[in-house]
From TrEMBL, chains A, B, C:
Gene Ontology molecular functions: 2 iron, 2 sulfur cluster binding; metal ion binding; oxidoreductase activity
Location of region: Disordered: 1-31
Bias-annotated ranges (Basic and acidic residues): 10-27
Originating species: Emcibacter nanhaiensis
Protein name: Rieske 2Fe-2S domain-containing protein
InterPro entries from the UniProt entry: Cholesterol_7-desaturase, Homotrim_ring_OHase_catalytic, Rieske_2Fe-2S, Rieske_2Fe-2S_sf
Keyword Repeat: no
Length: 447, 447, 447
């Protein structure tokens, strides 16, 4: 006989505060972005920024992690090469103790397995030059493009054909003035592109603790103005922000889905398709003397934000949220300006150092960093995507999720052989005890 | 052909040191407390202490975690409100950056979702006041009671009906003298209750690293005297402890299971139903001049210890082991005394500061803290409940487990959206690298 | 209608860089060492070094973890006893707060459960001497041998019969000159054994973050010379190393599989069965004036390396890679020399302090420590064993894996009740925040 009896209790009728049917992302909507929900480790077979050019000098080697894939970069005679940073033999990362015996190879520091920089083929083994494995195998190579002071890597699956690699421009924001007719911008001049002649990119990147999707959605979210209301830049410029901005029309967003072009969405901000909210009686708030800065946000795969006319005319802010692991991302903030003379370049650099960087890239965007982190616990186990209750201002992330689901080139598999792929590993634990958090760069072995 | 052959080996006949059949908690007994074994994250739909009154001043907001549920508290016009600390929109904790625009609401700092303090209804969205989600959903509200300088919250499941919430007194220890007939105490005066007029509660709370059940069972365990033998309070008072106390009668414990009353157990300590052990020849120990302090321990759901006549006459020690996650608990130690004058209140506070706190709540009880922690590795994966070998002195925890299994109001589901619900998250990892352990309070965002 | 359509993509034909069929460890080979692949937590029912003799003085108690099993050692009247370090009652580790009331027992500090040192029987409970559990149960005892200044423990499963325990010598390297005929060594004198009369063992042990198998395979790996090329010892001695050493004959390795003898393998280094590689044209390297030190490596179960004639004549280096958890191991480095006089002993100690320890055990072997760690991420989730691509120089680990699979005496179950058996436990987390990594020794409770 078992003494335990169930406790009687009245039913709570499901609770009055369950998930509301009035939310924007009902089951039907969610089914349209399942691939996005699956992309915990990112989308692969896309171009991602890896390093600023100045972070990889001639002959230098650097190891990073993107979408859980270990990548090693080396610059030789000015050209940058990228390979999978994992020896085929015993799996160590080549970049943790770089050994380059010739100009066109990188060797594993452990047993001397030597790979061609250009195609990743195993070309020899230092102490075992006649082994029959040589020539039969190798590591994946990644296409590299370097423009405007940034190194981009096409992060592909091992079996993604090189001949299918699209041009970098397909994974970058649309350009102006060539898109000015399709996406007019009467309130500001045509935005520069990092592909423009004499484009200069100034910026920074740092590691954030959140899933890359949460980070990305924050970037073009029109409804989070509140987070920025206390930022110094707002007050220094005497801007007066609305309480919010809500979609006033069904065509408030246009998706970009043409073949061979960037895939994403453009928001018709500062048109009558979006309405600023100036009053909320319930909380007794009223905005007077509205004085917003004009800007426009768009986002394209694999998660590239463009903020036109920001922070100033003739400058554009680009952002990437590069997946490192499933809960860390490398946050890139880059300002682009065309500088046709050395003088212009110097002036841009000066303004970057004294204004843009401290007040915008830090200051203003620091708030986004903690906002993303604040969401992470809710989404970390995957259930957040089902439980969130979105509203009409969330047309932006919902549209993005659908477009990204339709046009991504592949969903990354969980990372392997990189720090953070096995949670709470003893190595990770020891590093934490030493005060070192998980990061984007490979730690080099010190002897 | 597979070369691997099994190694021959004689059978070890099961090992002479398996689990003994002589143990008290055989399979039949264990089956009587399965719900308790399942309650890794605690029992819900119970009253728990949340904060001392002085920890939440007028207009202040504080976030805590109980049973894996995020809870935010705010005090307005003296009254304390408690809501689920998780925005329905993107899941951030409201308390991490409190934003209160009106007296009767709390707004999410991220997108301005605004909830009524009293019922949790979504009453508006700051920058989106006409959204159709408003009025259809909200967050769970938790009943609050404030007595004797302590704030109690009824931690309910989202669908637990408010009309079923029992009075706080059902989740507090029984009271005297009204229980003096049922549970006589000839050796000490009637114990005070925090519900008494002019009851003053002085105490502390801190986070312990162990499951709450392990912590709780330590509180009323009569057999762990050894741990306390070197405590200063014992020697300062010239107490001479027995080696142990063993049950001398079948009725050494009485369960409390009457409807509408606290559910738990009372131990008949310092009666002939329990026998002090004064000698153990095997280890050559003999106690002479026994001089114990009289006290009596009882425990009621959801895990509230009462130690009557401790540390002195007219004072009672209460303890709670409030589940935070499955392996952390908030340890509450509270001394209650009725102080009818300001002078008495000051004297109690003085004695608390110079004697009770350093020698009893710290000193003496610090040993319990490490004892609970020492058990955690054994119980952490759940198998400890099956492998432990209990003896007759363990009648106390066994009885408690059965009573708790019969009368708890619900078993908490694993926590969601709180620090520690996803183990080894990157945010947790970063905080560890910064030297911050997982805790009870939400860390506020610093700008 | 679901808008999401799959992205068209050409097939990558499996990727040109998949796992090569030219690798040495194909599926058939791998099937011959499945037990080894399963031995994540080590092989049990083997002799392991636990402590140096000087680490356990008379009456001292120390707790350690081997193969996930908690073990407590105590020395009484010079003799060392070893028991399972886990009270049968509530699972705490006895060693965390040692309480020894008699010479032949150890008592649990929590509830006084008292166990015989010799057989682990529960002989009494301090405060409950008549409980019927007494005499019916107990904790596992482990056979102990102490030789040459080292304490060895036979780490057995609870049900492994004591009468089946083999002599320590079966789990130690083979001895010379008795093996000199079978394994001739014309280039160096017979190596000493720690079982020799007047053998002196000097060494050190420390915790490494990697699986024990990865650590062990590094020890006798002939192909990792590159890692050591910059070590001071190499340059101080003017040694000139080859680029590599490759097997030149099918009988380059002899397995040792005779009954009642150590099981393992001997490598015929510095014979014509192994060929030094002096040139690699692909990477334009050529060695001139080869001047290697003669040495020979062998390995026996449960993972004991012997390096004969190293670092000098008449000295032998032994190494163990004792599993602590699945991703930590205790790395033992021991030099053995026969010292027949006190003068010889002093000279050995002096040379150890000023030469062997800084240049060999540290210096040289420090490189092995980071090499093992560098492999860990790749092997941590178990897939590394399938994905690694081994070459002909890997005949050594492949042969070892097969021999170990055939002759181990048991595969350890995942650890229980020890630090690190539950990953990311709150206690572990707190310790990390305090800057303490997971280790081999039990941390004693401080009051």
């Amino acid at each position: 006989m078992n003494e335990v009896k169930p406790v009687r209790r009245r039913s709570g009728e499901g609770g009055k505060h369950g998930i509301s049917e009035a939310r924007k992302n009902d089951a039907r909507t969610q089914s349209q972005y399942q691939p996005y929900k699956d992309a915990e480790w990112g989308f692969v077979n896309h171009w991602y920024p890896a390093l600023f050019s100045e972070e990889l000098k001639e002959e230098e080697v650097e190891g990073i992690t993107i979408c859980g894939i270990p990548i090693v970069l080396r610059r030789v005679d000015g050209k940058v090469y990228a390979l999978k940073d994992q020896c085929i033999h015993r799996g160590v990362r080549l970049s943790s103790k770089p050994m380059c015996l010739t100009k066109n190879t990188i060797s594993c520091w452990y047993h001397g397995f030597t790979f061609n920089l250009d195609d990743g083929d195993l070309s020899t083994i230092v102490g075992n030059p006649d082994d029959k494995l040589i020539g039969t195998t190798g590591i994946t190579s990644y296409p590299v493009e370097e423009v405007g002071g940034m190194i981009f890597v096409f992060v592909r699956e091992d079996d993604y054909p090189l001949e299918d690699v699209p041009p970098l421009s397909e994974d970058l924001p649309i350009r102006f003035p060539e898109s000015s007719e399709e996406f007019p911008h009467p309130l500001w001049p045509a935005s520069p592109s990092l592909l423009d002649d004499n484009a200069v990119c100034l910026g920074m990147h740092r590691t954030g603790e959140a899933n890359w999707r949460i980070a990305c959605e924050n970037g073009f979210d029109n409804a989070h103005i509140l987070v920025h209301k206390d930022n110094s830049i707002i007050h220094a410029k005497d801007w007066v922000l609305p309480l919010g901005i809500r979609p006033a029309s069904d065509d408030c967003i246009t998706t970009m889905e043409e073949e061979d072009k960037p895939k994403g969405l453009m928001q018709w901000l500062f048109t009558d398709r979006w309405e600023p909210i100036l009053e909320n009686k319930k909380v007794d708030l009223k905005v007077e003397g509205l004085n917003s800065r004009f800007y426009r946000t768009s986002v394209v795969l694999p998660g590239v934000l463009m903020v036109e006319n920001w922070p100033e005319e003739h400058v554009v802010q680009l952002e990437w949220y590069v997946p490192i692991t499933d809960d860390t991302y490398e946050y890139w903030e880059v300002l682009v300006k065309v500088c046709n003379t050395e003088e212009e370049r110097k002036a841009f650099q000066y303004r970057f150092d004294v204004f843009y960087k401290p007040l915008c890239l830090e200051g203003f965007n620091d708030c986004d960093l903690y906002a993303r982190e604040a969401m992470q616990d809710f989404y970390a186990d995957g259930t957040g995507w089902d439980d969130e209750q979105l509203v009409d201002t969330d047309v932006s992330p919902i549209t993005w999720r659908k477009v990204a689901s339709r046009h991504n080139r592949g969903i990354a598999k969980p990372g392997r052989g990189v720090d953070g792929s096995v949670k709470a590993s003893s190595i990770r634990m020891r590093r934490l005890a030493e005060g070192k958090k998980l990061g984007y760069f490979v730690e080099k072995i010190e002897e």
